[in-house]
Each structure stands twice: as structure tokens, then as C-alpha cells.
Write a structure and sequence with these properties.
alpha/beta; 4-stranded antiparallel β-sheet; 10 strands; binds adenosine-5'-diphosphate; AAA+_ATPase; ABC transporter related; ATP hydrolysis activity
């Protein structure tokens, strides 16, 4: 079996105007080390599916397995990143990156060293003692990427992580993400509504229908990566 296995996942939200079916009978498998993109029009349930995968929401129906165990809450093996990232403005960049590991009870000194190593890796060498307010949007997402990696989660769930950045910065970040993915053999699920980006990044693309979100098809991408 794969690392992540969803069977017949549905999600119905209760809203003021009645039940809203956001996801309908979605089944899939994700293998360890795969880079998956999740594409589909706005409102098709991509963020909902990612939230269920991250344990932030519970599915209404269906079963989600992580390493063959039922998965229904946040856990350390899973890291999430969003389009805009909240950094603590009164903490330094290094402290922002260390924080998840410290909360998880990892060794402080090791986390500080790891933070500096990761800041180097995302091109923020020397920025550890600066504050988030001094950074551009692209640099803040680099910090968020370093923070995402700091406690070494197995699975990265990324919801349009570079979608708010200008085209050039986004392409740079995508290339960087691929480099990191190749080095660390993480399993990535990456939400985007940009097909070009999905093709560029992924091993497989999960294509979702407009509401209610269903899995319409899975595309194997067989293109050489840079
Ligand atoms: P996408 O990420 O593909 O744009 P979403 O998962 O955000 O789609 O949303 C899917 C549908 O579920 C949309 O119709 C959205 O309005 C609805 N939805 C998402 N979150 C909630 C919520 N917390 N309460 C009610 N409806 C929601
Ligand atoms: P579009 O012109 O519709 O945005 P493209 O296929 O030109 O579609 O590119 C979409 C996205 O895919 C880019 O913004 C970038 O994020 C990613 N991408 C495509 N090709 C590359 C590349 N060679 N290097 C880095 N990123 C790329």
C-alpha cells in the first residue's frame, strides 16, 4: 500500500444556506517520495482535501490511512505551508524557523543549527538575526519553507505556497523546491491551479472537477526535470 491512502473521502460543510458538498467520494494513493500536484478550478475542494490530509478537518465520510494507520489529527510527520505565511514579527528569522521543532520537544541547540543550515539552503544565508518585517514577500515564503522543513516532516502539504509571488520569484522557488525534494526524498502534495506549474513539478497530477470536488483523473507526468 502507499504512504497515504484515501478511500471514498467526502466532506459536507454545514452552511447558513444548508449542506454544501465540498468533496465527493475521492479515492487515491500516494507513494512515499512522490511529488503530487492537485489541480482544479477554484472552489473544487483542493484546500479541503489538503486540510483533511493535514488533520485540520475531519472528513464526513471515508477513510484516510497514513502508513496503514487511520489518520485523523495533526501530527509531526506532516508539515503544511500556505500561500501567505504567518511569521512571528517579534522573533528573529532563526527563531521563527526553530519554533516548530522546539514545540515538538527537539533539542534547542540542534534546532538552531538546523535553522541556519535550512536558511542557507533556501538562499537566506546571513538573515538569521533579522526580523520578518525586513523581508520581501518572496523572502518570507523562503523562511516559511525553511520552517516547514525544520522538524523534518515526511509529508509536505503545500497550498499554492508561491502563488502570491511574482512570476520570476515563483519559478525560482519552484526550482528550489524540486532541488530540496530530490535531496530529501520528501513526499509532497502541492495544490495549484496552474497546469504548467503542475507539469513542471510533479510525478503525477490529480485533476479535480468543479464542485462537488471529485477526482476526475490522474495524469502521469513523464518529463525530464531540470
Ligand atoms: P479550492 O481550494 O479548490 O478553491 P475549497 O476546498 O477551498 O476549494 O472549497 C471547496 C468548497 O467548500 C467551496 O465551495 C467553499 O466555499 C466550501 N468551503 C470551504 N471551506 C468551508 C467552510 N469552512 N465552511 C463552509 N464551506 C466551506
Ligand atoms: P503559464 O504561462 O500559464 O503560467 P507555464 O507553463 O509557462 O504556464 O508556467 C507555469 C508555471 O510553471 C510557472 O509560473 C512556474 O511556476 C512553473 N514553471 C514552468 N516552467 C518552469 C521552469 N523552466 N522553471 C521554473 N518553473 C517553471
Amino acid at each position: 500500500a502507499g504512504l497515504i491512502e484515501g478511500s471514498h473521502l467526502s466532506k459536507v460543510y454545514a452552511t447558513a444556506t444548508g449542506p454544501l458538498v465540498a468533496l465527493s467520494d475521492v479515492s487515491f494513493d500516494v507513494n512515499e517520495g512522490e511529488f503530487i500536484s492537485l489541480v482544479g478550478p477554484s472552489g473544487c475542494g483542493k484546500s479541503t482535501l489538503l486540510s483533511i490530509l493535514g488533520g485540520l478537518e475531519n472528513q464526513t465520510e471515508g477513510v484516510l490511512l497514513l502508513s496503514d494507520k487511520e489518520h485523523d489529527g495533526p501530527r509531526a510527520e506532516i508539515g503544511m505551508m500556505f500561500q501567505t505565511s504567518v511569521l512571528f514579527p517579534w522573533r528573529t528569522i532563526r527563531q521563527n524557523v526553530e519554533l516548530p521543532g522546539i514545540i515538538l520537544g527537539l533539542d534547542r541547540k540542534q534546532q538552531a543549527e538546523e535553522a541556519d543550515r535550512l536558511l542557507d539552503m533556501v538562499g537566506l544565508n546571513g538573515f538569521g538575526d533579522r526580523y520578518p518585517g525586513e523581508l520581501s514577500g518572496g523572502m518570507r515564503q523562503r523562511v516559511a519553507l525553511a520552517r516547514l522543513l525544520a522538524h523534518d516532516p515526511k509529508v509536505l502539504l503545500m497550498d499554492e505556497p508561491f502563488g502570491a509571488l511574482d512570476e520570476f520569484t515563483r519559478e525560482t522557488m519552484n526550482v528550489e523546491l524540486l532541488r530540496i525534494w530530490e535531496k530529501t526524498s520528501k513526499t509532497v502534495i502541492f495544490v495549484t491551479h496552474n497546469i504548467g506549474e503542475a507539469v513542471f513539478l510533479s510525478d503525477r497530477i490529480f485533476v479535480m472537477t468543479p464542485r462537488p470536488g471529485r477526482l476526475e483523473g490522474i495524469v502521469d507526468v513523464d518529463l525530464p526535470r531540470p
